[in-house]
Design goal:
2 copies of one chain form a homodimer. Helix content of chain A is 58%, strand content 12%. The first copy, chain A, contains 6 helices and 3 strands. The first copy, chain A, binds a DNA duplex (30 and 30 nucleotides) through helix 4. Chains A, B: This is ArsR/SmtB family transcription factor. Chains A, B: Keywords: Coiled coil.
DNA sequence: TCTTTGTGAAACCAAAAGGTTGCATTATGA
DNA sequence: TCATAATGCAACCTTTTGGTTTCACAAAGA
């Protein structure tokens, strides 16, 4: 199935898996042993992560090592960043507004607002 | 229900909704009219978005205006950014490695690699 | 060779997700 | 006051998700 990075990181267990293998690749059993759900459940999560490119699984003897492809997170990063200007500008405007309220209070005394 | 920002942005329709109201709040019907699924379906997406804090819905007469709270995306941004150093460093290492291969080739001629 | 280890995958299940139709409710405008 | 517009929500449906147990199979080690 063609999968999406956004879908990949939607599940908290999958985010934990990514964190677990971010610095060091682990085989499937090692990953699974850190959770209290079954190995098969973790295997399915790993499969989803590999389907959306966030993990690459390489066979080595009878083990499969799971390597995080964190650079794929740039897709998420890019998506979020396109909105950063919008939200920071909006926060700045709020700040300006609050400052203006303050200065008006000083000039005219307490004023009823709603 | 307590919801998660990661879950909120997991669905492509919801990301489109966010984009649609990023610059200007719209009422529920206006949002829905941009999609070919039912108003109720969009309403449910809006509810999920509001449950995870990405949208605030305010009544105004008989309409409800949906405002994007894009600053909530910082949670996603923060999560991704904690891995940026890891992945850029890894790409740098790869680059160094490729450069080294190049210089070895110059010194010793073409060499079989596998 | 035989047993153990590490894994993939099938079959099954309950709950959640994403969608629909239909109805009730509240403001607005004529 | 009455029709209509904008909406919330219940009831229902199908597909997906996240989990389980079970079995098969290949590689390693004794």
């Amino acid at each position: 199935m063609r999968r999406d990075v956004f879908q990949g990181i939607a599940d908290p267990t999958r985010r934990e898996i990514l964190n677990m293998i971010a610095h060091k690749s682990l085989n499937v059993n090692s990953v699974a042993s850190n959770f209290d759900v079954s190995r098969t459940a973790i295997y399915k999560h790993l499969k989803i992560l590999s389907e959306c490119g966030l993990v690459v699984i390489q066979q080595q003897g009878r083990e499969r090592f799971c390597e995080a492809r964190l650079d794929r997170l740039s897709e998420v990063s890019d998506w979020v960043e396109q909105y950063r200007e919008v939200w920071t500008k909006r926060l700045d405007n709020l700040e300006d507004y609050l400052k203006e309220l303050q200065s008006n209070k000083k000039k005219h005394g307490r004023k009823k607002t709603r």
